[in-house]
Amino acid sequence: MHAVWPDDPGEALALQARLRRRVVARGAPTPALVAGLDAAYSRDGATVYGAAVLFSFPGLEDVDEAWTACEARFPYVPGLFAFREGPALCAALERLDRTPDLILVHGHGTAHPRRCGIASHLGVLLGIPSIGVADRLLVGKAGEPGAERGAAAPVCFEGEAVGWAVRTRTGARPVYVSPGHLVGHAAAVDLVLAMSVGYRRPEPLRAAHRCASVARAGMTKR
DNA sequence: GCGACAG
DNA sequence: ATCTTGTCGC
């Protein structure tokens, strides 16, 4: 048997190689419940706070929140990010009172050196459609999207579009969107834009980021 | 060999 | 990611 969350980078690479074959970057889900996933770290880096916030869609109402504190076992290695935050994010997700139809993850999906970033990884593992939204590129090059909200430019890597630079807010830097699993490129961009209202990052991710920070603050006290 | 490098 | 206040701009 193989571990779901190996501690060894070599083992993680082998598992990622197997998971990447199951990634399906196609589909156009019409979710009713979307979960935003993000994490925060204790100042010494020994603890990962994973947060999952459930939103209704397209209404965008915050309907449930959950978080967990886990020991940060896996080191930060660009390309193996899922093995560092995945355990805490999955644990938080399990604490929600309902299962989402779509998950939004802070990080990349297919815009990854082996096309299997944390969004794709979690999507395949959970069997739930997923989308990755990152603040900056890990791989590839992207043109500057138009200045107005809604504009997008492809992220090219090894001769193919692996994601999109999306202007979710006029006047703000673009966000990088890529399919995680069971969602195509166009649908991923459309869904992220539909969830980005007034701010650069989509609402579920803003809420998850806040939830993780609050969890850390409340834990740091006592 | 020299950079680049999600959070 | 995290350490950190005020401050410039829409």
From TrEMBL:
<feature type="site" description="Interaction with target DNA">
    <location>
        <position position="76"/>
    </location>
</feature>
<keyword id="KW-0963">Cytoplasm</keyword>
<dbReference type="InterPro" id="IPR007581">
    <property type="entry name" value="Endonuclease-V"/>
</dbReference>
<keyword id="KW-0227">DNA damage</keyword>
<protein>
    <recommendedName>
        <fullName>Endonuclease V</fullName>
        <ecNumber>3.1.21.7</ecNumber>
    </recommendedName>
</protein>
<dbReference type="GO" id="GO:0016891">
    <property type="term" value="F:RNA endonuclease activity producing 5'-phosphomonoesters, hydrolytic mechanism"/>
</dbReference>
<dbReference type="GO" id="GO:0043737">
    <property type="term" value="F:deoxyribonuclease V activity"/>
</dbReference>
<dbReference type="GO" id="GO:0003727">
    <property type="term" value="F:single-stranded RNA binding"/>
</dbReference>
<keyword id="KW-0255">Endonuclease</keyword>
<dbReference type="GO" id="GO:0005737">
    <property type="term" value="C:cytoplasm"/>
</dbReference>
<comment type="similarity">
    <text>Belongs to the endonuclease V family.</text>
</comment>
<dbReference type="Pfam" id="PF04493">
    <property type="entry name" value="Endonuclease_5"/>
</dbReference>
<keyword id="KW-0540">Nuclease</keyword>
<keyword id="KW-0378">Hydrolase</keyword>
<comment type="function">
    <text>DNA repair enzyme involved in the repair of deaminated bases. Selectively cleaves double-stranded DNA at the second phosphodiester bond 3' to a deoxyinosine leaving behind the intact lesion on the nicked DNA.</text>
</comment>
<dbReference type="GO" id="GO:0006281">
    <property type="term" value="P:DNA repair"/>
</dbReference>
<keyword id="KW-0234">DNA repair</keyword>
